[in-house]
Amino acid sequence: MPTWTKEQQEAISAMHEDILVSAAAGSGKTTVLIERILQKILGITTSPINVDELLVVTFTNASAKEMKQRLLKSIQSRLKSEEIIENQALFRHLNQQLVKIHHADISTLHSFCLKLIEQYYFTIDLDPSFRTGSTEEIQMLLSQAIDETMESYYADNDTLFIQLVQMLSSDRNDSGLRSAIQRMYYFAIANPNPNEWLLSMTQQFEEENMNQLFQQIAHEFKQNLQMHLADLNHILYQIEHHPDFEKVVLQLKGIIQEINSLPEDFESMPGHFKVLFERAASGSRKKDADKDLIREITAQIKPIRESLKTLVMNYLYDDFSQMKSDIVTTKPFLNLLVKITQEVMHVFKQLKSERKVIDFSDYEHFALQILIKDGKPTEIAKQLREHYHEIMIDEYQDTNRVQEAIIQSIKKQNKGEQNLFMVGDVKQSIYKFRQAEPQLFLQKYNDFKTNHTGKVIDLSDNFRSGLHVINDTNAIFDRVMDHQFGEIEYEGKQRLNCGKFKSLEDDVYGLPTELIFVDDKKLENRDADIEYIARKINQIVGKEKVFDKDLNQERYAEFRDIVILKRGIKRDAYQFQSILAAHNIPVFIKSDQGYFDTDEIRTMMSFIRIIDNPIQDIHLAGVLRSIIYQISETELAEIKLLNKQLSLYENITTYVNHGENHELKMKLQAFLADLKDYRAQARTLNVTDLLQYIFDDTHLIEKYLMLPAGKQRVANLKGLQAKADQFESSSYSGIYQFIQFIDKMIAEGKDFGEENILNDESNVVRIMTVHASKGLEFPFVIYTGLQTEYNLMDLSKPLLMSQMYGVALNTFKPELNLSHPNLLTKRLKEQLKREQVSEELRLMYVALTRAINQLILVSKLSDDEVVDLEKIHDEFVGDATIESALEDYQAATLHHKLDDAFRNKANKPIDFIGGSIFTHTKPLNISYQFITKLDELADEENETKNDVIQSNTEWLDEINAFEYPYQNVFDLPTKESVSEIKQQQDEDETTTYRYVNRHILEQSDFDRPQFIQQKKKTNAEIGTLMHTIMQHLPRKQGWALSDINQLINKLIERNIIQASDKSYIDQEKIFKFTQSKIFEQLVHADEVYYELPFVIGKEYIFDEALPGQVIQGMIDCVYKVEGQYYFLDYKTDRFNLRLGKSKDDVLQEMKAKYQFQMDAYKKTLEALLGTTVKGYLYFFEYKEIEV
Question: What is the pLDDT of residues 393-446, one digit of tens each?
């Protein structure tokens, strides 16, 4: 039996009230939770209960599984106790729990909600055959909902909507508005009533609310000023009577007077500050002046003045009436944005309903609908209240508002019967980007302590880490974390207390923390930090000792004892993998990136693409060069040289009949036979089975298994099958849709990490994000990338959102097409920055507390930058040159944090870590090194601080000195479409916003098959439909309108189009086309080609092109009349007449708009045909025009 601390025992046995356990990292909260469950089952504190009378909510499915397993083992262990065996009733009861535990509600909240929905779906009119959509499918449906909603607004050509697009997007596209809608949607659904939350965002402009808002802003402004006032008074105390600072003292007193005399009402505040914006006074320039002290005091004042100026400029940037007007003018834009978001929510709900699909947010909202009606608990909720003896919530700090509402609806409310047990640590709340609300934890923590509405139990004893880790973590966070930064005061019971050792002598396996500054500039190696880490790992493995809890004995460190943590590993995952491999270090990168870049997945995706359409040279070449067919580059060149004008596939078919290399012909014949077979199989097999068919037929699994990292490659291929299976279970199917499905994910930056082939015992170094490491522990933690700045780009967007502070939009001036921040956005930006920096500090806390034996902190930083850190001065730090009279004051402020001005400016982890370490009177006991040379890091040669590590880096110099001779063309594409080139040209030029919503066939995402077609088609789909009709329109004279209807019916009968398409076809426009001059030419044409694909060398069309670059495209129609070739491009653009323009005026604009595309088609045909070609654009909205 374990020995419990007083606090742990209290957490195990407390009852009859809501309980919040604030459990620090490594405090054994899971063990405590399991013991609490076990004691309730045994009836130690109450009558024995069944395990299925408890609701235990965990953060992940893995945590739920682990808790069930541990609880099962604990019950089995108790059943062996003589005391239990002798008590027959209790023995039978415990045996029953072995069965009940498998059905017990020990799960994530999502699993609980799903179970509730499956039981009570009929109470919310939900189709019982619903299924859960994959993340990718749901994202595609949401994108579709946004597309359809925005298209309706574009069709109306509403002025306010166009201005909203201009405000939130660039002149290149409207992705800014789409992103804003999506963000607002996710913020809304994180609330119990999304529509209510959205409407509340618009109510802030009511006069009464505006008055309250300005009162609140005035209060916040004064609070921020008071924090700076303390810093100014501290400096004034140091120099007030010093002869070298007369002017400085006078100016400081003036600034302090301005702060103290600030008017009460916000309207009178603008223009109040004058001394603050005067030129900074300097110390005495006399020869005998204390220059060192003057520099020191100036360095202290400067950041405080800058911070004050920024604060005043944010809150008082103009007179009150103008600032208020700037806010009020955003009201119509915010109202419209809210309205659009509500419509998107409605369309998205319909799309999901039609497919009988629900997502994870639906789990929560549907469960809430089952439990709450008209603001009151339903009978189902009341039944659950009676059923559950207790509700236990793990990781409560990561709960959102909807989840909180669900929990509150089923917990007992009466005093003395309250049954909510919550466990968490707000210092480890790192999921705010998922709408987690640490404030829910903090509100309860403060309310329970202040108003005694519940019980707070603090578990601060850490049983994971050694004293070195705990002392250094405390020392850093003592200086940086408080209510302003971290949202909780790091003091008292929030500090870590070592539960394993009483002294450093007892911590026999613990090692001092190391802070490493790698000077990559002097090393002239951008990956020098990784090189250092590799050497450090080899220094640890087989040399340092660890205590193995499983073996209950000490052993030498292995690779699996080491983890490398980073904020994000996407950018340098490959560098880590290759450099560590070069040092013979086995490594596994736990990442969500890189899967689609692996050789085996690229090969299979190319294979799938050419099965769908073999006229794709790059993908076809990739398959031929792969391990499957092993055709060499020389052989490929031989094939391609047959006819440069033809596609690779066409050249292959020619080579099989006329080629000279018999061996190559045999290879190509085998390939063509395979391709024919696979294309035939694709008509009947789903993607998963097709992949398996290819694997079996080509022995691909066996071939990849023989290559280096073969097991990983095979796991990735099997993973592709799993993803295809997941895709097939969605509302999409077929290889074409699968390709589009994957392309959509790649385009949106979604990827997967390589498949995990490891178990917990695999002896490899693990590289993972800090987020992924939560809940894990390792003897050695290498926390790197400390120089990487926090990503605060979202704070510069014109739309800012916060669950706590609401929504703010920039002020937009339509007449100037300019927007600028206003008081609300400036205020919200500062608040969001504090929230984000607080989250980053909590992330840093999680990283540091993963370590058992040693922390190794690695940052790329030059000596000069380190020296700057050594110059930090704040309330915490005194200075030896200041009068001895200050000693008492310094002693009284030793536990203060780094000053707010410094922390406000900090924008990366090393700022906070370095700022805590580089002090003058109280340096932390953390050794640091400057690495300017690399060697094998022999233990005896390492010295702390400024000793430089020696090594021979000539091989690194040679590598870095190498320059790739064709770097200038490295990123140039070998194959482009006309549309892509035009898009690039548009992006390179500054253009005005385009009001016309056009459709280009090559840019449409994909044509939706019948089983996912919706009642409402998009403009893009209608355009594709019109192209299909044109392709099958017979060339005959004497058309009547009734003939068009008959044609459409025939196309439906032949399954070329669907019956539901008919209502979208404008038959009069098609009839009008049959009466046009263009159609008359087609009727009498000698040759006609529809949907003509082409691939041509770029040099035939554009002057600036390199050999090997090709252009691909498709021309709607090419025909020949009396020896003259013509080409025709159909357009379905809307003709929106504005500003008094006629249709002919708009027609000329349209012609100019498509001139680039038409010129490219013209040059292509002339190059291919060797004769002049004429072209026409035909607009269904109006008529044709020659280009």
Answer: 999 999 999 999 999 999 999 888 899 999 999 999 998 888 888 999 999 999
**For residues 1129 and 1158, is the Cβ–Cβ distance under 8 A?**
yes
Report DSSP state, residue 948.
P
CB 553 within 8 A of CB 775: no
Q: How far apart are CA 115 and CA 366, in angstroms?
A: 11
Beta partners for 767? 564, 589
- Residue 132, φ and ψ in degrees, nearest 5: -90, 125
> Which CATH number does 135-190+323-355 carry?
1.10.274.50
Assigned architecture for domain 598-748: Orthogonal Bundle (1.10)
975 by Cβ neighbours in 10 Å (0-12 / 13-18 / 19+) ranks as middle
Q: Is residue 872 very low, low, confident or very high in pLDDT (cuts 50, 70, 90)? A: very low
Among the residue ranges 134-143, 841-850, 934-943, the one predicted with the least confidence is 934-943
Q: How far apart are CA 438 and CA 475, in angstroms?
A: 24
pLDDT tier, 293 (very low <50, low <70, confident <90, very high otherwise)? confident
Give yes or no for a contact between 896 and 490, defined as CB atoms under 8 angstroms apart: no
Tokens of 803: 């669950």
Coil/strand/helix, residue 6: helix
Residues near 1066 by Cβ (< 8 Å), separated by ≥ 6?
1026, 1180
Q: Report the C-alpha gap between 240 and 462 in whole angstroms.
A: 46
CA–CA distance, 251 with 301 (Å, rounded to integer): 11
Q: Tokens 């947010």 — which residue?
A: 361
Could you tell me which of 507, 535, 531 has the C-alpha nearest to residue 520?
531
Domain spanning 1022-1186, CATH architecture: Alpha-Beta Complex (3.90)
Question: Which residues share a beta bridge with 457?
Answer: 21
Selection from 477, 568, 558 nearest residue 778 by Cα? 558
Predicted local confidence at residue 448, as pLDDT: 94
Beta bridge partners of 769: 566
Cα–Cα dist 999/549, whole Å: 64
- Looking up tokens 């000069």, which residue turns up? 864
Whole-structure pTM value: 0.71
Per-residue pLDDT at 793: 87
Same fold, 6-130+359-459 and 504-590+763-877+897-931: yes
The CATH code belonging to domain 504-590+763-877+897-931 is: 3.40.50.300
Residue in 673, 750, 968 with CA at minimum distance from that of residue 135: 750
| CATH class of the domain defined by 6-130+359-459 | alpha beta
Instruction: Give the C-alpha separation, 732 to 137, whole Å.
Output: 8
Q: Where are the domains of the chain?
A: 6-130+359-459, 135-190+323-355, 207-317, 504-590+763-877+897-931, 598-748, 1022-1186
The total of other beta-carbon atoms located within 10 Å of residue 709's CB is 16
Q: Pick from 85, 188, 178, 130: which is nearest to 435 by CA?
A: 188
Please report the pLDDT score of residue 952 as a whole number: 44
Model confidence band, residue 970 (pLDDT cutoffs 50, 70, 90): low
Token pair recorded at residue 611: 């099965």
Residue 211 sits at the vertex; the CA angle it makes with 207 and 214, to the nearest 5 degrees, is 135
Residue type, 1008: R
Q: Is the dihedral angle over the CA atoms 1169, 1170, 1174, 1177 positive or is it negative? A: positive
Q: What string of DSSP letters covers 626-685?
A: STTT---HHHHHHHHTT-TTS-HHHHHHHHHHH-S-HHHHHHHHHHHHHHHHHHHHHTTS
Whether 563 and 780 have beta carbons less than 8 Å apart is answered as: yes
Cross-strand bridge partners of residue 1131 = 1179
List the structure tokens of 577: 């993998």
Q: Which alpha helices (DSSP H) does 748-862 contain, by range?
A: 770-773, 823-848
| Residues linked to residue 1173 through DSSP beta bridges, in sequence order | 1125
**Residue 949: Cβ within 10 Å count:** 21
Report how far apart, in Å, the C-alpha atoms of 191 and of each of 368, 930, 1026 are. Answer: 11, 49, 43
Nearest to 487 by CA among 1004, 929, 845: 845
